[in-house]
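Lab notebook, design round three. We kept the backbone fixed and only want residue identities now. Task for the bench partner: fill in a sequence for the structure below.
Input structure tokens:
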């Protein structure tokens, strides 16, 4: 089991699962193929080495009529996803009727959103004595009471349409943006699905600490998505598993985790449970942080985890325990959820 000191550390810092806002990441090319493939037909460009993607930018309006700019990455309807050139994410429809999905209207082909984002706050992240938990963590973008990146205009279809710029500023995940050319380049993170390297974009989070560390938008309404700690067909969520205390050391075999990432050794290399197009896919990721036990560490049992099955096996073997305190997820060997969401669309394979 974790030592008392480490237990205090994870209880305060388990939310910090993407950490790229705290320390610059280095190349993780060792985990990628030379021929990374974009999953979005609508994507304008993919730079796997530098972990960025360029997407079409769409003009919308806020409820007050002001201009806002957004991207689309997923749709709950296969025909709509094919038409847009985005991911098919069938489980998004399970969030319909909750605060996790905001209602919009199409006026002359332009979406008018009920909720929007204030990009004006200054993002502040000050590492703590051990990197994390951070001494200070304040998000640089905050959604209003009606904002969610998940949007419906009716017909039972939900799209993932995060707003990335308006008159108050732009998302901290933006690398560059051109409203005249209608394109935006966003930062990505590398992770794993079923043993394969993936890249994903992160745009929103339901907890302020996560939004600050990710450089994403605080969107508390996302937590209304059904299915906390569940992979049931009725869930609107899918698990992401960050390893808190994996092997550390830049370039070291098996390197992974939050401690390593905050030290600037590379991406945290989180593990996802579903993949675009599958019946269980959704970008609404339910965080299940994992902790290697002291016994696993001292006996040299830590290794690079590449799949949800790897995680479940280690949980059942007693070498990994939960940082979360919420529902036990049977599909992950009993690993517990921590109780919040990060909106992350898988956009590339390899």
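Proposed sequence:
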């Amino acid at each position: 089991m974790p030592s008392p000191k480490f237990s205090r550390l994870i209880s305060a810092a388990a939310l910090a699962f993407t950490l790229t806002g705290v320390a610059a990441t280095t190349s993780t090319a060792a985990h990628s193929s030379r021929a990374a493939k974009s999953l979005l037909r609508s994507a304008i460009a993919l730079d796997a080495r530098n972990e960025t993607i360029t997407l079409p930018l769409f003009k919308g309006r806020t409820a007050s009529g002001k201009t806002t700019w957004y991207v689309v990455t997923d749709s709950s309807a296969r025909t709509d996803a094919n038409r847009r050139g985005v991911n098919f994410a069938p489980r998004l429809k399970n969030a319909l009727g909750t605060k996790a999905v905001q209602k919009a209207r199409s006026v002359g082909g332009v979406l008018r959103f009920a909720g929007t984002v204030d990009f004006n706050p200054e993002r502040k992240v000050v590492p703590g004595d051990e990197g994390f938990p951070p001494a200070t963590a304040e998000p640089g973008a905050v959604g209003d009471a009606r904002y969610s990146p998940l949007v419906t205009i009716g017909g039972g279809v939900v799209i993932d349409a995060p707003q990335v710029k308006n008159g108050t500023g732009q998302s901290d995940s933006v690398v560059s943006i051109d409203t005249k050319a209608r394109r935006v380049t966003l930062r990505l993170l590398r992770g794993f699905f079923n043993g394969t390297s993936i890249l994903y974009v992160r745009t929103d989070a339901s907890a302020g600490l996560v939004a600050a560390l990710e450089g994403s938008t605080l969107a508390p309404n996302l937590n209304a998505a059904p299915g906390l700690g569940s992979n049931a067909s009725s869930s609107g969520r899918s698990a992401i598993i960050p390893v808190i205390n994996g092997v550390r050391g830049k370039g070291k075999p098996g390197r992974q985790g939050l401690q390593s990432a905050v030290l600037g050794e590379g991406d945290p290399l989180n593990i996802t449970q579903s993949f675009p197009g599958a019946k269980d896919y959704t970008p609404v990721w339910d965080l299940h942080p994992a902790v290697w036990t002291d016994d696993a560490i001292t006996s040299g049992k830590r290794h690079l985890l590449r799949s949800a099955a790897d995680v479940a096996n280690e949980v059942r073997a007693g070498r990994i325990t939960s940082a979360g305190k919420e529902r036990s997820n049977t599909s992950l060997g009993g690993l517990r959820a921590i109780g919040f969401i990060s909106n992350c669309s898988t956009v590339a394979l390899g």
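Keep this in mind before ordering anything: Residues 1-27 have pLDDT under 50 and may be disordered.
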